[in-house]
Structure formats: C-alpha cells, structure tokens
Amino acid sequence: MSSVPVAVVTGSNKGIGLAVVRALCRQFPGDVYLTSRDPGRGQAAVAQLQQEGLRPLFHQLDIDDLQSIRALRDFLRDKYGGINVLVNNAGIAFKVDDPTPFAVQAEVTLKTNFFATRNVCTELLPLMKPYGRVVNVSSMVSCSALRGCSQELQQKFRSDTITEEELVQLMTKFVEDTKRGVHEKEGWPNTAYGVSKIGVTVLSRIQARLLDEQRKGEHILLNACCPGWVRTDMAGPKAPKSPEEGAETPVYLALLPSSADAPHGQFVSDKTVKPW
Ligand code: NAP
C-alpha cells in the first residue's frame, strides 16, 4: 500500500474540475486523480496536462453510477488506505432556454447534483484520513434559491439539527412536487439547479456536524463553496472568471493547512465564509 497522500476531483475532464486538478498537481504533495465518467475525455484531459509538464493520474468515475463510485472507493482503499483530499465538483445544469419540461429538468438535475454527490460522500467520506479536506462545489445560486423558498422551508434548510434523511426527503419532495405541478404552491423557488445546490450546501453543513460528532480529533475539514461565475461549457463565454480563477476557492479549501481548524461546515465564496 502506498503512503503517498492522494487527492481526487470528480468531474475533472474539463471546466473548473480540470483547473482544480491542474492547481493541485502544482501544489498538492502527492498523487492527484483526474476523474471522468468517459475514459476517452478523461485521458484526453490527462494528456493535455501532461503537455504542460504535469503528472495527474486517471480513474473513471460516473457519479450517477453506484458501481463506478464503489470501484473508485475500493481502488483508493486498496492502493492508498484512504483519501486525503476529495473535491466533489461534478455537476450539471440545463441551459436557460432548454425546452425540456421543468419536472424532467428537476429530476435529472437533482439526480446528479444532489443524490449522486451524496452517494459519493456516503461511499468515500469513511475513507477520509485524519487532516483530510472535503470540498463540495455548490453555488451562490443556493443562497438566492434559499431566499426564494417559503419561510417554513428556509427554516428547515437553515436548521442546525436537520438530518441527512430529512434533507433527502425534502429533495425528493421537490422533484415530486414539480411532477404534480405544485412546487411553487409548496414553497419552492422556480429553479431546479438552485434547489439542487441548496441540497449540496445543506448536505455539507450536516456532514461537517457528523464529522464533529463521530470523528472528533481527526481534524477533517469539510466545506461547501462557490467558485464564482466561471467561463465553462456550463456557464458560457460571458462569465467574468477564467476556470483557473474559479478553481481558487475550491483549491484553497482543499489545501487548508494541517494547523487550521476552520472553516468547517461553512459556505465559502472568494475564500470568505458567507452567511447561510
Ligand atoms: P462543466 O464545464 O460543464 O463541467 C462539469 C463537469 O462535471 C464535466 O467534467 C462533466 O463531465 C462532469 N459531470 C457531469 N455529470 C457527471 C457525472 N454523472 N459523473 C461524473 N462527472 C460528471 O461545468 P463547470 O462550470 O466546470 O462546473 C463545475 C462545478 O461548478 C459544478 O458543480 C457547477 O454546478 C459548479 N458551479 C459552476 C459555476 C460556473 O459559473 N461555471 C458557478 C457556480 C457553480 P462530462 O464532460 O462527461 O459532461
């Protein structure tokens, strides 16, 4: 088994994830895994970084596929005995003008951004080593979507005692409410992406609390973040930040020094803790 530290970035064949891998290759003292659901796109991204003189490693990962997540889990457990840095970056967004019915957009978006990200956490968080760093890439849109929720929902999402099961029930209810055409009546905002990212931010708050309760003394820090508005296939060419600039906050959180005990369980944007 290798004693080399290891970092893993989900959805890193392009966009912000690729920029996070590039920065970690330069700054993280260990092996860095670029992962992609499509091995061809993943290997092409690895080759691109190799051209730049960097040495990322590759492993397939489709976060929508539990078998794929478990294959990565087993590989990391057997080869490294755990994980030092996990960046949950993979995500999707429908374009604003996409004609797909809202209920379908809700189901598909929640499936990857919330439920699949949660599956990755369920399988990989038990492997986090002491002083491990977990970064869940959410969005400022989670904050605006939260403000668009009913007072009752806002209270639930801001609660310091909400459980993962309760959060899963709420995310499931959103999808069901969109299918029944009653999501606005039920207090939800009209954004599937926004609700999926509420899920990511609240999940991060819950997981940080569980780490405090169950693994105190291991110094693992887990946070949600917004990369900013970044020029990628998702956000388009008009966004102000380059992928490298978008990677700055996730990389800052991934490389928090071992002496740090904060931030933890926070929503971080521009390397600054934001109110939730
Ligand atoms: P992007 O360029 O579209 O890249 C998304 C990445 O996620 C791609 O590598 C994509 O792989 C991967 N992915 C999607 N579904 C996956 C799955 N099921 N399994 C594994 N990988 C999957 O988007 P981006 O702008 O870099 O976004 C990265 C993250 O930042 C997302 O979580 C996004 O919500 C968040 N974010 C972005 C912005 C922004 O302005 N860009 C702002 C706030 C938050 P494929 O190439 O195979 O599709």
Structure, explained:
There is one protein chain. The protein has 276 residues and is an alpha/beta fold. It has one domain: NAD(P)-binding Rossmann-like Domain (Rossmann fold, 3-Layer(aba) Sandwich). 47% of the residues lie in helices and 15% in strands. The chain contains 9 helices and 8 strands. β4, α4 and β5 form a beta-alpha-beta unit. α1 crosses α9 and α7 runs antiparallel to α8. It starts with 5 loop residues before the first strand and ends with a strand. NADP nicotinamide-adenine-dinucleotide phosphate (NAP) binds next to α1 and α4.
Adjacency order of strands in the biggest sheet: 3-2-1-4-5-6-7-8
Shape designation: globular
CATH topology: Rossmann fold
Number of strands: 8
The named CATH superfamily: NAD(P)-binding Rossmann-like Domain
Mean pLDDT: 98
Please name the CATH architecture: 3-Layer(aba) Sandwich
In this entry the ligands are: NADP nicotinamide-adenine-dinucleotide phosphate
Strand proportion, as a percent range, falls in 15-25%
Task: List the helices and strands in order.
Answer: EHEHEHEHEHHHHEHEE
Low-confidence stretches: none
Question: Domains counted in the coordinates: how many?
Answer: 1
- What is the CATH C level class, in words? Alpha Beta
> How many strands, which pairing sense, and closed or not: the largest β-sheet?
8 strands, mixed
Q: How far from one another are the termini?
A: 41 Å
Radius of gyration: 18 Å
Counting helices, strands and paired strands, the structural category is: alpha/beta
